[in-house]
């Protein structure tokens, strides 16, 4: 419905059997939306082709978990537990724990914040379970045992997730209000096409996409085809913008002019480390090629 791509829909479960891709055109950008088959309890162990479905979700920027508003809350907990079992951490940020293996020197344990869930002895026991006897561990926040294990494993994926409750037209207004007030939740109705515009806005907000428009020298900005950047993929600085256009462009940049909310005045001369914001206009000024043989009276004569 959002992409214009046909996807089989019916009143029974597991209608979608394969991954169905589609493109959403929103705010002058293209967002790929993948309609994945539903997963069941035990999907992390391979039941119901669960590992193939979860593998696709690992490479995404945002997970939309579509739930039935008329069913119990247990489905949300089951799906979240199955995703966490394969290393997906929903709506969590990486723990502030510095961990580095060493060849010698034993285990160095330090913390810059008071710890209430773990102590030095427990940390040693966990490292010994992983057969790690030489390492440096620094806690920058009050972390748990699970956070330390995630850092040691090093293969966890932290993804934002929005719980989308469908079929709100078959439940009462009080139930809809309770579902809408839950964290990271959104209520819609595909049958009556209710709140779909809010779903698109929420997707844009959670993904943190930044549109940057280019401006050739002496011409008007090109507002038709923006360069889309993301803090989760590549970054949103001027350097990331240049690399997105072409890898060889960075060495030829002399300075950059920026118009928009990230600039203090219009235009602002910026360096490569300047952070860009949504709907900024950027003009790149390249270095001039040096003339061979010098200039003026220093020019060589043959």
TrEMBL record:
It comes from Aegilops tauschii subsp. strangulata (Goatgrass). Residues 1-208 form the OBG-type G domain. The keyword rRNA-binding does not apply. This is OBG-type G domain-containing protein. Keywords: GTP-binding, Nucleotide-binding. Residues 208-286 form the TGS domain. InterPro entries: Beta-grasp_dom_sf (IPR012675), DRG (IPR045001), G_OBG (IPR031167), GTP-bd (IPR006073), GTP-binding_2 (IPR031662), GTP1-OBG_CS (IPR006074), P-loop_NTPase (IPR027417), TGS (IPR004095). GO terms for molecular function: GTP binding; GTPase activity.
């Amino acid at each position: 419905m959002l992409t214009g791509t046909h996807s089989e829909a019916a009143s029974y479960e597991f209608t979608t059997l394969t991954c169905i891709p589609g493109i959403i055109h929103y705010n002058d950008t293209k967002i790929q939306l993948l309609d994945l088959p539903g997963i069941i309890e035990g999907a992390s162990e391979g039941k119901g082709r669960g590992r193939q479905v979860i593998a696709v979700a690992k490479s995404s920027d945002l997970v939309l978990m579509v739930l039935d508003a008329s069913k119990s809350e247990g489905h949300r907990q089951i799906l979240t537990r199955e995703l966490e079992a394969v290393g997906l951490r929903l709506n969590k940020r990486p723990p502030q724990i510095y961990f580095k293996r060493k060849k010698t020197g034993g285990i160095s344990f330090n913390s810059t914040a008071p710890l209430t869930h773990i102590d030095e002895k427990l940390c040693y026991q966990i490292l010994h379970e992983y057969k790690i006897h030489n390492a440096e561990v620094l806690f920058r926040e009050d972390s748990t045992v699970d956070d330390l294990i995630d850092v040691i494993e090093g293969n966890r994926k932290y993804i934002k997730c929005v719980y989308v409750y469908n079929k709100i037209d078959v439940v009462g207004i009080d139930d809809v209000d309770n579902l809408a007030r839950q964290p990271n939740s959104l209520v819609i109705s595909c049958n009556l096409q209710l709140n779909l515009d809010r779903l698109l806005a929420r997707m844009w907000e959670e993904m943190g996409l930044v549109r940057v428009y280019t401006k050739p020298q002496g011409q008007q900005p090109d507002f038709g085809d923006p360069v889309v950047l993301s803090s989760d993929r590549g970054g949103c600085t001027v350097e990331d913008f240049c690399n997105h256009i072409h890898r060889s462009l960075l060495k030829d940049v002399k300075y950059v002019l920026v118009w928009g909310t990230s600039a203090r005045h219009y235009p602002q001369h910026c360096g490569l480390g300047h952070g860009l914001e949504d709907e900024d206009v950027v003009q790149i000024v390249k270095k001039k090629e040096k003339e061979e043989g010098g200039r003026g009276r220093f020019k060589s004569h043959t």
